[in-house]
Amino acid sequence: MYNKPYKIVYCTPSLYVAGGLERVLTLKANYFAEHYQYDITIILTDGKEKPYYYPLSNKIKVINLDINFEELWSCSFFKKVILYLKKQRIFRIKLKKELFSIKPDITISLLRREINFITQINDGSKKIGEIHVNRANYRNFEVGDDLFLKKLFALFWMNSLTKKLKKLDRFVVLTEEDRLQWQELKNVMVIPDPLSFHPLSVSPLASKRVIAVGRYVYQKGFDLLLQAWSIVEKKCLDLELVVYGQGIREPYESLLDKLRIDRNRCHLNGPTADIEREYLNSSIFVLSSRFEGFGMVIVEAMACGLPVVAFNCPCGPKDIISDGVNGILIEKENIEKLAKGIISVAESPDLAKKIAHNAQIRSHDYDLDIIAEKWKSLFDSL
Description:
Elements: E1 7-11, H1 20-35, E2 39-44, E3 61-64, H2 77-102, E4 106-109, E5 126-130, H3 148-165, E6 170-173, H4 176-179, E7 188-190, E8 209-213, H5 222-235, E9 240-244, H6 250-258, E10 266-269, H7 275-280, E11 284-287, H8 296-303, E12 308-311, H9 317-320, E13 328-330, H10 335-346, H11 349-363, H12 368-381
Parallel strand pairs: 1-2, 1-4, 2-3, 4-5, 5-6, 6-7, 8-9, 8-11, 9-10, 11-12, 12-13
């Protein structure tokens, strides 16, 4: 029996970005290092000299290979191809050298560029892949981005990817819904993301305030939300909507005017450093996404004692929410039904309190210690 703490290597591009993947990786790595005493190394390819956005335990080692794939962002297509192939070859050589030097028990790819060759590195470690989006949107393009060559490339990439995923010892997805999309794989298991904070109190549901959180991009469906809100605001005259997120807000500001929405009761904000406080000062959370990888904002809102009204989009909401019990699931992209769902919760305090109570209980299933135990069981099984 293996009695020593595991030696684990994570491969990911960088840690300076304020992204969900970076936050989850940091949470898990810190917990593994501090609570299980695992020997954790994170190998990066980009962001040399840039500070990590999320605090990292001093027990964790970080190696930056300084490949600088970000250089590709500013290149023409043909130069990008040539430079990518060159950088990928250097990356493979450097990563192989590090793995043979570290001799980890387990190497985990977050399904970035190393997935192309990670199973070919015979360093003796078990290989795990984990994906943080759903299959259908792994190579997603924004609306209007429908060039034939890009669609063709996405199809080619997915076929190539599945061949590589079959060679992994385990492939981890975030939801049961997404697991069913990988029928050709026999090594898939589900481990959701952990809750990133634990509120000391819950919302009293006293404020007449609906909150939405996410980036201002097509995926998050804030255009659909605003159309629904134009219905809600006429029915619930004392209710206001607040949105928090990064990104370009101008198209949504224009939509406000087009829909003649009352700007005194609808506020499109940038990101906030204290999202927990904003949840606690609200009375309803709404998720209007066209698709998700998981939907951690749902769990965050639940933990803060908010009733959640969410589109039943792929993937995540129906894994987390039992409709009518701990949240309200709405037919995806149905604007009228989304408005009706918000109104029904806003006009029924008893319904809101019942759902919020059950939601808070449900949120504990995503506590970090519970999710970490699932990972430990996986490591033990390998």
